Amino acid sequence: MSEEGYVMAWMVYLGAAVVTLATLWWLSWRWSLAAKLTLRAVAIAVLFMPWPVAMDTDTLGPAWVVTLFDTLVQSDGTPLRAGAPLLTTIVLALLIGAGLYAWRRTR
């Protein structure tokens, strides 16, 4: 893939991720504060975390796509290569969402 194609693919992905996040934001505006904050934090973590697409390259892709590709397509791929950091990021996002909820309730 050429450099221009790579940049264009990222622009399309980021545009779709922003639209997905805006839709999620709009759909969850009536939910409880705890559900809104945690769901939005997890969605941001999953949609916007990059990870190298291969071991020997600096080319980045969305971590959830890399995990899915390693799991389903690669015969020698391990899903933990991008899956473990993605799970760590999701747990961190849950902690941040819970912290924001606690901070908001005390305020």
Automatic annotation (TrEMBL):
Name under which the protein is recorded: MFS transporter
Regions crossing the membrane: 6-25, 37-54, 82-103
Q: What keywords is this UniProt entry annotated with?
A: Membrane, Transmembrane, Transmembrane helix
